[in-house]
Design a protein that fits this description.
The protein has helices spanning 5-10, 37-49, 60-80, 94-109, 128-137, 157-160, 183-192, 212-215, 240-245, 280-296, 298-317, 344-353, 366-372, 388-404; strands at 18-19, 22-23, 25-26, 88-91, 115-119, 140-144, 165-171, 196-200, 219-223, 234-238, 256-260, 263-266, 322-325, 334-339, 356-357, 359-361, 377-381. Helix content is 40%, strand content 18%. Helix 7 links the parallel strand 7 and strand 8 (196-200). The protein folds into two domains: 5-27 and 298-404, Aspartate Aminotransferase, domain 1 (Alpha-Beta Complex); 41-294, 3-Layer(aba) Sandwich (Aspartate Aminotransferase, domain 2), CATH 3.40.640. The strands form five sheets. Strands 4-10-9-8-7-5-6 form a seven-stranded mixed sheet, sandwiched between helices. The two termini are 39 Å apart. It has 405 residues and is of the alpha/beta class. The structure holds 4'-deoxy-4'-aminopyridoxal-5'-phosphate. 4'-deoxy-4'-aminopyridoxal-5'-phosphate (PMP) is lined by residues 31, 93-95, 123, 125-126, 171, 175, 200, 202-203, 223, 225.
Amino acid sequence: MSFDLKKIREEFPILQQKIYNRPLVYFDNAATTQRPQQVIDALIRTYTEYYGNIHRAAHFLADKATLAYEETREKVRKLINAETREQIIFTKGTTESINLAAFSFGEAFIHEGDEIIVSEMEHHSNIVPWQLMAGRKGAKIVMLPIDDEGRLLIENMETLITPRTKLIAVAHISNVLGTINPIRQITQIAHSKGIRIFIDGAQAAAHLRIDIQDLDVDFYAFSAHKMYGPNGVGVLYGKKELLEQLPPYQGGGEMISEVKFSGTTYNELPYKFEAGTPNISGVIAFGAAIDYLENLGIENAAARETELLNYATAELSQIPGLRIYGTQSEKSGVISFNVDGVHFFDLGTMLDKFGIAVRTGRHCTDPLMDHFDIQGTVRASFAFYNTKEEIDVFIEALKKVISMF
Ligand code: PMP
């Protein structure tokens, strides 16, 4: 490996602690990652050195905060290779990004009888906002199914698409199955029929190198807290000609050009979509997280996570009665599983007593749970700072827990 794991782990203070007197094994990275000291420092520095409300006052602190905030916008633009900074809209997370896109796109383009295709493996946050919009507009949601390996049935798309299909919403990576979806292929099919494409990149942005121009998607959303950054910050990317056609999502300060009781005009992109005081310190510290990731190399991080995924999958596969959900070859470092005769919740609770943090439950994916006819799973998800030794501890603890039942 081209990076120093010991040094990297030391950069994450939270990883140093013991839980129930055992070293913490943090395998809940798909829910939220941990932060390196330089991100924590950036937050503290903002509050102690240059905190002021951005874009508004002509004083030193506000200017400095504005510069730092806008610097992060440029870092995000570079990170995903977007054409312009106007296409990077800060939100409070992927969920808000999807709600924004669904609302504004719906207002501009959706009419009664129109259809939106949403995949079966989506997180609730990439289903419900589209349903809300469809309900308002009299539109219909159509499900794009998966197979039992957790692969999207892309070949079904042609039959699901009708002249009324206006948008397809798909995750780049599934938060349960780990499946990496073939976004370029889906986009090509969609665009050949004049259909817009929305990608939920919550699980992808820290684990894949995103080239938004190459993917050619119309919208892309992600959250800083899953990228070693602060929580409460997210991004919505959109094609410029599309964003320009959309009405604002929320009204308030910043998003306006001129307000009169006879009518209001709106600010230019991206401010049209950033009403009110945003998460100033969070966005600034997100810049530090992007620096961290770029310095480390997303490709290096991804290679390491794949190594951990392969090692853990091989070990877990040897445990009798254990079933893994999501067995596609194109997969990121997420393993969801169940063990015959042991409830996932019991497994998670007992693993916690060994200092191991995994997630249990439905992972905000009811339709996916219904597909597999299950109530939930245990999910272990890896980041570059995890180690093979931690996987050994996890496997050993898992075997012990299973033997108790
Ligand atoms: N989509 C996916 C695939 C996710 O994994 C998550 C987070 N669990 C979300 C959307 C929602 O992200 P957030 O809670 O940061 O808004």
